Amino acid sequence: MSAAPTPAERDAMTRALALAATDGVPLGPNPRVGCVLLAEDGATVAEGFHRGAGTAHAEADALARAGAAARGTTAVVTLEPCNHTGRTGPCARALVDAGVHRVVVAQRDPNPVAAGGTETLRSAGVEVVHGVMTAEARALNRTWTFAVERGRPFVTWKLATTLDGRSAAADGTSRWVSSAAARRDTHRLRALADTMLVGTGTVLVDDPLLTVRDDDGHPVERQPLRAVMGERDLPADRRVLDPLRSGGAETVHLRTRDPHAALAELRSRDRQHVFLEGGPTLAAAFVAAGLVDEVVAYVAPAFLGAGLASVADLGITTMSAALRPTVTDVTVLPDDPEHNVRFTMTPHPTRPQEEA
Asked: Where are the beta strands (DSSP E) in 178-311?
């Protein structure tokens, strides 16, 4: 049996997680990974982290920095070393060739294409320890892990509503249900996703640009894919189709009314986190299909009494059947004179796989 992780190895895992989360590292499509090489006395020999698709993996980065000093070290890594050759070589083999004698892993690799590193290491006589700070490692790559394990992107549904559940007034006006502070916060959350999804109805009525913008209203450098779902044609003058005003954001028209089909197509494009900002009809379709994994609701302290509901008919006719998501956070938005409240909720439990 492998020896339990030492205090130095646990400290190194904390450091490896921090390295993986270095500012500027893309949230996808690859997982964020950090690695720390320890000498026999627990001293740090070298550190490394993955900087995005096409760059050296965390283990290779650390090994390159260590050079010959890597021999006899312990590699503490946030994700199981990969076992396949893609844009870079297999990390498991690189650790063996470098003479690493022990590997401490936080999270098993759920990707069947890359998995198997543990077996390669052990067959070469390298000691492998699993399960050190697993929950933290999974949280670091929450949407990547979900997409790989479930075979579809993680879906965050964002809505803005009045206290009486209206997303637009009776005359159809919807700007602005939420406050300026809520809209700034929405752009922060948009930047965490790799896809923004609306329906054709939203594009036809509201003509959104669907970009991530900074506090000055300018498009940021990295833009999510803009996805429009629905079978209706889109006029060529819609802003979502204009690349010149969007900071280079791409747009795809998903010609389907089936949420499962839409997510399957997005996953085929290597997308892992969908930010659903469509209207009440599209939202109801995803909720009814059980395809909403997180709800972010901005609630304005206002009443309309009539107007468009924030979600369309879900077929629920009695209180006992009401959908009651688990509230994970309630925040009165800071620096908001209108005192909008952000609710973050989980509509259904997602059970992580056990580490072995």
From this structure: 195-199, 225-229, 251-254, 273-276, 294-300, 308-309
Specify the pairing of strand 166-168 against strand 308-309.
Answer: antiparallel
Given a cut of 50, whether residue 250 has pLDDT beyond it is: yes
Task: Render pLDDT for 130-151 as a digit per residue (tens, 0 to 9).
Answer: 999 999 999 999 999 999 999 9
Which DSSP state fits 218?
P
Determine the distance from the C-alpha atom of residue 66 to the mean position of all C-alpha atoms in its chain, rounded to a whole number.
32
DSSP characters over 288-318: HTT---EEEEEEES---SSSEESS---S--S
Alpha helix (H) ranges present in the chain? 7-20, 58-66, 91-98, 117-123, 134-140, 142-150, 180-190, 200-206, 259-268, 280-288
Record the pTM.
0.90
Amino acid, res. 197:
L
Distance, CA of 129 to CA of 291 (rounded, Å)? 35
Q: How confident is the model at residue 354 (pLDDT cuts 50, 70, 90)?
A: very low
Residue type, 163: L
Contact 29, 194 (CB under 8 A): yes
In this structure, what token pair is assigned to residue 246? 């969007």
For the cut 60, the answer to whether the pLDDT of residue 349 exceeds it is no
Q: For residue 234, what are its two tokens?
A: 């889109």
Task: List Cα–Cα distances, 28 to 148, 158, 194, 285, 315, in angstroms.
Answer: 12, 21, 8, 27, 36
Tell me if residue 228 falls in helix, strand or coil.
strand
The DSSP symbol for 104 reads: E
Q: How far apart are the first and last CA of the chain?
A: 13
Structural Rg of the chain based on CA atoms:
23
Average of per-residue pLDDT across 164-185: 88
> Which residues have a catalytic role annotated?
59
3-class DSSP assignment, residue 247? coil
Which DSSP state fits 103? E
* Contact status, residue 239 vs residue 319, Cβ threshold 8 Å: no
